[in-house]
Amino acid sequence: MVDHSFTDLTLAALYDTLNPWGPGDDFYLGLVREARSVLDIGCGTGRLLRRARAEGHQGRLMGLDPAPAMLVQARRAQPDVEWVLGDMRARLWDGEFDLVVMTGHAFQELVGDEEIRGCLRAARAALGVNGRFVFETRNPAARAWERWTPDRVYEVIDADGTSVRVWHEVQGDGLSGGRVRFTETYEGDGWDAPRVSSSVLRFLDNDALRGFLSGAGLSVVAQYGDWRRGPLTPAGPEIVTVAERAL
Predict the structure, then answer these.
(1) 72: domain range?
(2) Are both 222 and 148 inside the same structural domain?
(3) I need a labelling partner for 89 at 20 to 30 A (CA). Which of 15, 83, 161, 165 fits?
(4) What does the pLDDT read at residue 7?
(5) Which residue ranges of the chain lie beneath pLDDT 50?
(6) In terms of Cα–Cα distance, which of 39, 45, 126, 32 is closest to 78?
(7) What pLDDT, on the 0 to 100 scale, is given for residue 247?
(8) Helices (H), strands (E): how many in the chain?
(9) Is 3 within a domain?
(10) Each residue's pLDDT tens digit, 162-186
(11) Same domain membership, residue 212 and residue 182
(12) Same domain, 195 and 93
């Protein structure tokens, strides 16, 4: 099995089509509009920061992502943003951002405990005075992975007019050790073969999440269960967290 997710320009170009702008994007855009300087960790194609700049945001905007193909899309669409290849180990951070975000469930791609701790410590270091770190993770009680099945096929049209079908398949028994392994398969008309991306996501409940935040020197300011800022519920879809540097 070949993982194309970090290198395939064709798949990166499909990302925004497969993941259309939605309520979560509106939520984060509202925060970005109010911040003078923003760091987007795992920015993907950079559409959040691209949208903010296109609307006239005059401050510093930086997008960070480990996938070169994603940043190709970002740079093509909006060169007037700092696009940085890598993760939070890419540089030393020194309190230069009013807002740090992780959107699109990018936080769940931190699979190991040390990965989580390292990213959270770096996010804290990047926050200026009164800065906020905002991110979301899927609530494991909602069991979203049970809907990632091969019978749910999504069809999109790429920039060349090619019809591309996409489906997901969970590996093993689903949630195991707080992690879900799955594949994402892309099949396009005229392609020699399907392209398969394999992934692992970490699902943390809120108690574990708060433990990691506290250990990294971050305190929770607010948490929401949906993009309308509704309260957390036992089986709600999201755990949206707003954190700041602990005193």
Answers:
(1) 9-138+204-245
(2) no
(3) 15
(4) 58
(5) 1-4, 6
(6) 45
(7) 79
(8) 6, 11
(9) no
(10) 899 999 999 998 999 999 999 999 9
(11) no
(12) no
Q: Considering 202, 218, 234, which residue would you say is the last residue of a domain?
A: 202
pTM of the model: 0.94
Neighbours of 185 (CB within 10 A): 17
Which residue type occupies 51? R
Say if CB 108 and CB 201 are below 8 A apart.
yes
17 and 97 both lie in a single domain: yes
Helix axes 68-77, 9-18, angle to 10 degrees: 60
Q: Where are the alpha helices (DSSP H) in the chain?
A: 9-18, 23-33, 47-54, 68-77, 113-126, 206-215
Structure tokens at 76: 């093509």
List the Cα angle 15/200/45 in 5-degree steps: 20
Give me the pLDDT at residue 9, please. 84
Length of the chain: 247
The reply to whether 68 and 128 lie within a common domain is yes
Residue found under tokens 């469930």? 105
Total of domains in the chain: 2
174 Cβ neighbours under 8 A, 6+ residues apart: 143, 145, 146, 180
pLDDT attached to residue 22 = 96
Does some domain include residue 85? yes
Pairing of strands 127-138, 163-170: unpaired
Q: Environment class of residue 130 by beta-carbon count within 10 Å: exposed (0-12), middle (13-18) or buried (19+)?
A: exposed
